[in-house]
Amino acid sequence: MVSGGAGFIGSNLVRALAEQPRISEIVVVDDLSTGSLDNLRDVPARVLVGSVCDPDVLDDALPGAASVVHLGALGSVPGSIDDPVRSHHANATGTVSVLEAVRRHDVRHVVVASSSSVYGAVPGMPRHEALRPMPVSPYAASKLATETYTLAYAACFDLAVLPFRFFNVYGPRQDPEHPYAAVVPRFIADALDGRPLTLHGDGQQTRDFTYVADVTDVITDAVVRRVGASDVVNLAFGTRTSLRDLVAELEGVLGWRLEVEHGPPRPGDVRDSQADCTRLRELFPAARPHSLRAGLVATVEWQSAARALSPV
Ligand code: NAD
Ligand code: UD1
């Protein structure tokens, strides 16, 4: 069962899982609050439209499930500042609801999505999992709840868990039009429309940009091999790119200069982010990430093709 399977990472994951001969059935639970059924077109999955907070939906989804990958959440930092209770409900309460359903249906393997945003204001780079989390947004606090509830359930019940901290994930099927769209799809859409790109703050903030297939390959391997861990694991490959360098890389991919404007710094924004990937490498030594250039090329191609298909 994949919660949030109609979203960006989820729909890429469902496609990757569907290629695995050892996986016989995939069930998606998604309330379509930010995801879309279009993302799952032509994908062999049973889709249940409903919330992870609804036990009846989970009781329909979970019988017979060998693994749960819990991605369903409201993923935006600014969105959580606009409505902290909504973020808490979907992300923290939603996780407890999934874990309770896992217990009811005796599922023994759970992968969950936490976030590098939990590091927040903690000093020290790269971000190692042993650093004390210091969230600076309600979203980050809700993700800390996601991972700690998952570890607590593993300690109390017979359950293998793998709480991943994703960093800034980008790639095909990431929505560029959403009001809280992430920086990579937003910049590509602005560039293709000929609009200036808006840098919040000085543009020197850094992210460990991670191509979505690199994330879904690791999760697929985790599901197939039933990998568990006794603590959280960063899922990124230890790169550090400033937004200014991201703009330059995008100019290289597109072959033209991009106009940039500066906006005010965003409340709740993390300044710098880079993963220590030692734990990830121990658990998944075969993982080979794409370069930022290769990932951006594939993402620009996808956005260009999606535009060509959509009515004007
Ligand atoms: P997304 O918004 O595209 O996907 C999230 C999906 O969850 C959507 O399809 C949405 O409709 C669904 N959803 C939201 N609330 C739900 C609920 N109550 N019940 C059922 N479904 C619900 O975002 P994404 O980028 O694919 O994020 C997937 C997960 O990864 C999230 O948990 C997010 O917090 C986490 N994450 C993402 C990133 C990133 O860079 N994209 C980084 C760190 C963590
Ligand atoms: C993203 C994810 C979040 C995840 C986190 C982990 C999304 C929407 N958010 O948050 O779920 O937990 O990674 O690292 O996927 N920016 C601009 N101009 C823009 C848009 C953004 O300058 O037009 C800046 C932001 O202020 C921020 C940086 O770009 O400094 C990255 O922003 P964004 O992609 O929205 O995501 P994160 O805050 O990193």
From TrEMBL:
InterPro entries: Epimerase_deHydtase (IPR001509), NAD(P)-bd_dom_sf (IPR036291), Sc_DH/Rdtase_CS (IPR020904). Pfam families: Epimerase. Residues 2-235 form the NAD-dependent epimerase/dehydratase domain. It comes from the Bacteria. PROSITE patterns: ADH_SHORT. Belongs to the NAD(P)-dependent epimerase/dehydratase family. PANTHER family: DTDP-D-GLUCOSE 4,6-DEHYDRATASE-RELATED (PTHR43000). This is UDP-glucose 4-epimerase.
